[in-house]
């Protein structure tokens, strides 16, 4: 099959292209324009349509959904396959999502039910995968073991940038009611795992107040609601900062905790190790950490983040906040462990650091399942079969 892969700085782009080639497909890589990331780019659309004709392309493939690609495929009667690994992913709610050329797959089952309930029947569920061979092949040297070994590690953003939406809103709004209300629902949500109610509590009056300080309007024909945008882009990221700092600070009081992030925030006894290279270094860390944490953005309602799949695909032990989609593919206590509160996370970390044999058995069972059912080759064959 002739496939055009729209390339951008997605973490799994190389793994996807390699898997497609391993499956026997011809992959033609086209760099996505910067404009097409945010809006319909007519110039890039024409470029893509020309490439489709020149290569006799049967499928255009992208990580995440881009309306420009959908319109180009609609014009040329080509199939467009997009695989979403981010949430929020505002572009998938664009009016072009209903184009009949689309085959939209997303890692979050909640997004599927939400879009389908609003009339978008081109979307389906597909969890992420892992390049198990790449993740497990590096040889662990004594130097690597010394550098990356730790009790507990976490890789990810703290969402502590000064320019983030929440901080910008609060700095602009001389509105004690709005700040108190938003802080209140963020605190309430922080106590609840497995159900997200932030958007439900953003009443029309509160949304109007937010809009008055940071003007925003949903595009005509969009399948998303204004309150959902505020919840996912403003509040969920603020909550991720609170969730992650609380978790790391608490665990750091009892264990050796290493944080890998682009920020410089100090968190108690936690060692901030800076950034880590996704391809070259991260596999060592996930294999050498006794416990690997996943603390999901609350905008990811049910889905399994790519980080978690990478941990399992490395043969690492995963401790994650509860996410419903895990139970569609894995068994808790057999392939991973989860927590639904901060005290539970602390208790389970104590337990598994004291029970090495059990911890290693769970990690090994997860790796075996990943090798059998969750490689990129397996998943991409399922996606292509469906179209």
- How many DSSP-defined strands? 12
How many helical elements? 16
Strand numbers in spatial order across the main sheet: 2-1-3-4-5-6
Q: For the record, give the distance between the C-alpha atoms at the N and C termini, rounded to a whole number.
A: 12 Å
Coarse structural class: alpha/beta
Largest sheet: 6 strands, parallel
Helix content: 40-55%
Q: What is the general shape? A: globular
Tell me the radius of gyration: 21 Å
Q: Proportion of β residues?
A: 5-15%
Low-confidence stretches: none
| Global mean pLDDT | 96
Order of secondary-structure elements:
EHEHEHEEHEHHEHHHHEEHEHEHEHHH
Notable features of this structure?
single chain, 387 residues, alpha/beta, six-stranded parallel beta sheet, 16 helices, 12 strands, 14% strand
Short description:
With 387 residues, this protein is of the alpha/beta class. It is built from 16 helices and twelve strands.
Task: Explain what you see.
The model has no long low-confidence stretch (mean pLDDT 96). Strand 10, helix 12 and strand 11 form a beta-alpha-beta unit. Helix 8 crosses helix 10. Helix content is 45%, strand content 14%. Strands 2-1-3-4-5-6 form a 6-stranded parallel sheet, with helices on both faces. With 387 residues, the chain is of the alpha/beta class. It is built from 16 helices and 12 strands. It starts with a strand and ends with a helix.
């Amino acid at each position: 099959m002739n496939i055009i892969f729209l390339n951008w700085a997605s973490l799994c782009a190389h793994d996807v292209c390699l898997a497609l080639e391993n499956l026997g497909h011809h992959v033609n890589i086209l760099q996505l324009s910067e404009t097409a990331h945010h809006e319909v780019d007519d110039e890039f659309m024409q470029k893509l349509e020309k490439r489709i004709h020149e290569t006799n392309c049967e499928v255009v493939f992208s990580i995440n959904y881009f309306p420009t690609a959908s319109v180009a495929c609609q014009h040329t009667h080509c199939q467009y396959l997009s695989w979403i690994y981010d949430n929020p992913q505002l572009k998938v709610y664009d009016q072009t999502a209903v184009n009949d050329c689309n085959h939209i797959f997303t890692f979050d089952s909640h997004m599927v039910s939400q879009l389908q309930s609003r009339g978008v029947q081109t979307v389906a569920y597909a969890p992420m995968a892992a390049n198990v061979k790449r993740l497990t092949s590096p040889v662990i040297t004594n130097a690597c073991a010394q550098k990356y070994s730790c009790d507990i590690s976490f890789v990810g953003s703290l969402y502590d940038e000064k320019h983030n939406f929440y901080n910008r809103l609060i700095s602009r709004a001389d509105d004690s009611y709005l700040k108190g209300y938003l802080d209140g629902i963020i605190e309430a949500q922080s106590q609840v795992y497995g159900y997200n109610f932030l958007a439900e509590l953003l009443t029309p009056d509160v949304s109007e107040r937010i809009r008055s300080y940071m003007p925003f309007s949903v595009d005509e024909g969009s399948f998303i609601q204004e309150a959902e945008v505020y919840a996912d882009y403003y509040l969920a990221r603020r909550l991720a900062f609170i969730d992650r700092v609380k978790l790391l600070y608490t665990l750091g009081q009892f264990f050796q905790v290493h944080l890998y992030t682009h920020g410089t925030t100090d968190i108690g006894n936690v060692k901030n190790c800076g950034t880590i290279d996704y391809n070259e270094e991260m596999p060592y860390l996930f294999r050498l950490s006794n416990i690997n944490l996943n603390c999901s953005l609350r905008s990811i309602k049910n889905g399994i983040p790519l980080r978690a799949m990478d941990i399992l695909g490395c043969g690492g032990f995963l401790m994650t906040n509860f996410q419903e989609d895990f139970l569609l593919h894995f068994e808790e206590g057999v392939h991973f462990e989860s927590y639904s509160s901060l005290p539970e996370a602390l208790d389970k970390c104590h337990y598994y650091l004291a029970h090495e044999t059990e911890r290693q058995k769970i990690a090994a069972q997860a790796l075996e399942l990943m090798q059998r059912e969750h490689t990129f080759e397996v998943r991409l064959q399922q996606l292509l079969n469906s179209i």
